[in-house]
């Protein structure tokens, strides 16, 4: 498959109605099946929710990063659901023991963060090792709000944590927020779409000795960065969804345009009159 | 083959209207240029359905089912007959062509011109054409804006059927705006109108569309302050940022304690 074709498919999706993103990805794949793998792994779509039957039916979020075959790994029980056969599981990805400890702690912290900002919804964090020889790892932190409602918010933070020298770490985060708002009535209104932003932060972990302390430092650094990015993007979404859309609308039609034009005309007449004095 | 046409139709009809040229080029690349004739045909159907204005040497007209004449289209006010290059949305083989215009049709057209220059700061295109039944006129207003350097486009279409014997006015308005810098955000809205005992057609349209605009401004405000605000707080109830690290567990202890757990 050519790079050009894949880039064209991504550019095409950004020109089509984001409300129909999933259906449009499907249509492109039907036209060009060879694009399936790359499109499904690189385009963020609204997150699905499953219940962890091995963990009091606690809900968890599903995306391509915790998927194997048609099952998704729960961050709570660490099981793939629906259950995979023991043969299939030998091939399934799991984080190393140490990374799993960090994943458990990160899920606990992100769940508290979710409660504080979202007052509901579901969160999940998944980690995977990047390179056996280093402590570099990657992961994704997910939040979803509005499961039962037509109004939905999905946050997807994909990150890499790279050890750049003894205690120095670089955090690279790509954040996508998918937001859908709608209202039915005399006039049906929908505001739908997604915004993406990249963030990078380098931190020296001073005095972090034990593995537990290093883990806590990673959660603090990732957590505070995600908190900051989400706050900025919440502001950006508000500007784009409401102010920008309304401004573009008024470039199309604006009842006050006539009044403005008349006022401007009167104003010019007035200035001319004054100049004539 | 018809499955292919269906898929192309689905994708083309989902394009932001002013961006249809880019969409058709990208679709040609994605499909290895193997069926550009299908894309061209579907884009033509899209232009007609969305009433996208056709450029006739700087003046804009519509190509619709109402002004089709054989394989060409006519415009009663610019007094021309033309074919359409649908990919570029320009007129071809333009020749002069006179058709009878009723006084009512002409009056509505002229009043529309005043209304549009007052309330449509975008490039507004409009027309009044005989509809399928005698006594009926179709009125079309389209306003578009495209700013590719700033990654946005916008589209307004309102269309009405006016019946001069029953004095009814039925129609609808569709608006979409698209913003695609570092993402893809689309706003869509529509409303249906059905008025009886209409005396002054253009005044009634103006009144309906102004009320639509006022409701729209209100919907934006309410969605922002209501549904949007409910999804994620600006700050936690504590009004301060989260204390990450070991202390984060205290939030839960506090919450459980307040519940008496």
TrEMBL record, chain A:
Pfam families per the UniProt record, alphabetical: F_actin_cap_B (PF01115)
Signal peptide residues on this chain, from the entry's feature table: none
GO annotations of cellular component type: actin body; actin cortical patch; cellular bud neck contractile ring; cellular bud tip; F-actin capping protein complex; incipient cellular bud site; mating projection tip; medial cortex
Biological processes per GO annotation: actin cortical patch organization; barbed-end actin filament capping; filamentous growth; mating projection actin fusion focus assembly; mitotic actomyosin contractile ring assembly; mitotic actomyosin contractile ring contraction
Sorted UniProt keywords: Actin capping, Actin-binding, Cytoplasm, Cytoskeleton
SUPFAM superfamilies: Subunits of heterodimeric actin filament capping protein Capz
GO molecular function terms attached to this record: actin filament binding
Localization: Cytoplasm, Cytoskeleton
Top-level division of the source organism's lineage: Eukaryota
InterPro entries named in the record: CapZ_alpha/beta (IPR037282), CapZ_alpha/beta_2 (IPR042276), CAPZB (IPR001698), CAPZB_N (IPR043175), F-actin_capping_bsu_CS (IPR019771)
Keyword Cytoplasm: yes
Function: F-actin-capping proteins bind in a Ca(2+)-independent manner to the fast growing ends of actin filaments (barbed end) thereby blocking the exchange of subunits at these ends. Unlike other capping proteins (such as gelsolin and severin), these proteins do not sever actin filaments.
Family of this protein: Belongs to the F-actin-capping protein beta subunit family.
The protein's assembly and partners: Heterodimer of an alpha and a beta subunit.
Protein name: F-actin-capping protein subunit beta
Organism the protein comes from: Eremothecium cymbalariae (strain CBS 270.75 / DBVPG 7215 / KCTC 17166 / NRRL Y-17582) (Yeast)
TrEMBL record, chain B:
This protein's record includes keyword Nucleotide-binding: no
GO-annotated molecular function: actin filament binding
Gene Ontology BP annotations: actin cytoskeleton organization; barbed-end actin filament capping
InterPro entries according to UniProt: CapZ_alpha (IPR002189), CapZ_alpha/beta (IPR037282), CapZ_alpha/beta_2 (IPR042276), CapZ_alpha_1 (IPR042489)
Coiled coil regions in record: none
Pfam family, one: F-actin_cap_A
Top-rank taxon: Eukaryota
UniProt keyword annotations, A-Z: Actin capping, Actin-binding
Keyword Zinc-finger attached: no
GO CC term, one of those recorded: mitotic actomyosin contractile ring
Complexes and interactors: Heterodimer of an alpha and a beta subunit.
Family stated for the protein in its record: Belongs to the F-actin-capping protein alpha subunit family.
Its job: F-actin-capping proteins bind in a Ca(2+)-independent manner to the fast growing ends of actin filaments (barbed end) thereby blocking the exchange of subunits at these ends. Unlike other capping proteins (such as gelsolin and severin), these proteins do not sever actin filaments.
Protein name from the UniProt record: F-actin-capping protein subunit alpha
Source organism: Eremothecium cymbalariae (strain CBS 270.75 / DBVPG 7215 / KCTC 17166 / NRRL Y-17582) (Yeast)
Lineage: Eukaryota, Fungi, Dikarya, Ascomycota, Saccharomycotina
């Amino acid at each position: 498959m050519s790079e050009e074709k894949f880039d064209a498919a991504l550019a095409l999706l950004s020109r089509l109605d984001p409300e129909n993103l999933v259906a449009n990805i499907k249509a492109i794949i039907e036209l060009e099946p060879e694009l399936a793998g790359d499109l499904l792994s690189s385009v963020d779509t609204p997150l699905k929710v499953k219940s962890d039957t091995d963990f009091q039916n606690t809900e968890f979020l599903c995306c391509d990063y915790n998927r194997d075959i048609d099952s998704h790994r729960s961050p709570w029980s660490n099981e793939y659901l629906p259950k995979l056969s023991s043969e299939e599981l030998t091939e399934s990805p799991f984080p190393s023991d140490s990374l799993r400890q960090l994943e458990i702690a990160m899920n606990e912290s992100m769940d508290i963060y979710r409660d504080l900002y979202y007052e509901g919804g579901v969160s999940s964090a998944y980690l995977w090792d990047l390179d056996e020889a280093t402590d570099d790892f990657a992961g994704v932190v997910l939040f979803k709000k509005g499961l039962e409602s037509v109004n939905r918010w999905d946050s997807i933070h994909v990150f890499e944590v790279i050890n750049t020298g003894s205690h120095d770490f670089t955090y690279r985060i790509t954040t996508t927020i998918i937001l859908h708002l709608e209202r039915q009535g005399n006039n049906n209104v929908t505001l739908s779409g997604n915004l993406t932003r990249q963030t990078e932060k380098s931190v020296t972990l001073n005095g972090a000795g034990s593995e537990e302390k290093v883990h806590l430092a990673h959660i603090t650094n990732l957590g505070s960065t995600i908190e900051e990015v989400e706050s900025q993007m919440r502001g950006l979404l508000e500007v784009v969804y409401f102010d920008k859309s309304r401004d573009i609308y008024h470039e199309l039609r604006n009842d006050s345009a006539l009044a403005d034009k008349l006022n401007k005309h009167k104003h010019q007449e007035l200035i001319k009159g004054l100049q004539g004095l | 083959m018809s499955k292919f046409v269906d898929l192309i139709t689905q994708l083309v009809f989902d394009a932001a209207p002013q961006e249809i040229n880019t969409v058709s080029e990208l679709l040609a690349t994605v499909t290895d240029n193997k069926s550009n004739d299908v894309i061209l045909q579907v884009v033509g159907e899209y232009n007609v359905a969305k009433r996208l204005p056709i450029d006739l040497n700087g003046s804009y007209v519509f190509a619709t089912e109402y002004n089709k004449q054989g394989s060409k289209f006519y415009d009663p006010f610019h007094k021309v007959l033309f074919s359409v290059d649908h990919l570029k949305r320009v007129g071809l083989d333009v020749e002069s062509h006179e058709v009878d215009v009723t006084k009512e049709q002409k009056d509505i057209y002229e009043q529309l011109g005043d209304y549009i220059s007052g309330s449509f700061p975008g490039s507004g295109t409009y027309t009044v054409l005989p509809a399928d039944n005698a006594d009926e006129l179709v009125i079309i207003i389209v306003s578009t804006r495209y700013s590719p350097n700033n990654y946005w486009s916008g589209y307004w279409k309102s269309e009405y059927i006016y019946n001069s014997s029953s004095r009814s006015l039925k129609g609808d308005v569709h608006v979409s705006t698209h913003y695609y810098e570092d993402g893809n955000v689309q706003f869509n809205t529509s409303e249906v109108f059905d008025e009886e005992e209409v005396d002054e057609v253009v005044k009634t349209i103006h009144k309906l569309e102004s009320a639509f605009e006022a409701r729209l401004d209100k919907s934006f405000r309410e969605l922002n302050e209501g549904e949007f605000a409910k999804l994620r707080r600006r700050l936690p109830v504590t009004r301060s940022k989260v204390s990450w690290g070991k202390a984060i567990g205290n939030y839960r202890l506090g919450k459980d304690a307040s519940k008496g757990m």
